[in-house]
Amino acid sequence: MYIGDSARVLKNKLKHFGVKVSGPVALKRKNFRFDTNRSPHVDKKSREQFEQRASKRLIVLYGLTPAVMQMLGDSSLFPPPPSGVETYLKIKKVKFKKEK
């Protein structure tokens, strides 16, 4: 399961709780490249190249309640990521919907 699939699964789960969801919007991917020497002392021209990629998705949620916020903190709501993939949840600003 890739990042786009995980974002769609999360979006569908949040819709069941009555949260209005906007997104997922793909943000720019960051590539980190670095070289290392293959040998510690000799052969400066012999190097290995490594690359690490960081992909991000933006999902905006409207109509949050404290109960939904509690569920967002629960890791069982998210699908398990594939091996070698880490997922993070960042909450920027919260305005709760007034309950009647």
Low-confidence stretches: none
How can the largest sheet be summarized? 2 strands, antiparallel
Strand order of the largest sheet: 1-4
Say how many strands there are.
4
Helix content: 10-25%
Intertermini distance: 39 Å
Contiguous helical run count = 2
Task: Determine the structural class based on helices, strands and strand pairing.
Answer: alpha+beta
What does this structure look like?
- The chain is an alpha+beta fold and 100 residues long.
- The chain has a domain at 3-28 and 57-77.
- It contains two helices and four strands; from the N terminus they run H-E-E-E-E-H.
- The longest helix has 14 residues, at 3-16.
Fold blueprint:
Elements: H1 3-16, E1 20-26, E2 30-37, E3 47-54, E4 57-62, H2 66-73
Antiparallel strand pairs: 1-4, 2-3
Task: Identify the notable features of this structure and list them briefly.
alpha+beta; two-stranded antiparallel sheet; two-stranded antiparallel ribbon
What's this model, at a glance?
The chain is of the alpha+beta class and 100 residues long. 22% of the residues lie in helices and 29% in strands. The chain has 2 helices and 4 strands; from the N terminus they run αββββα.
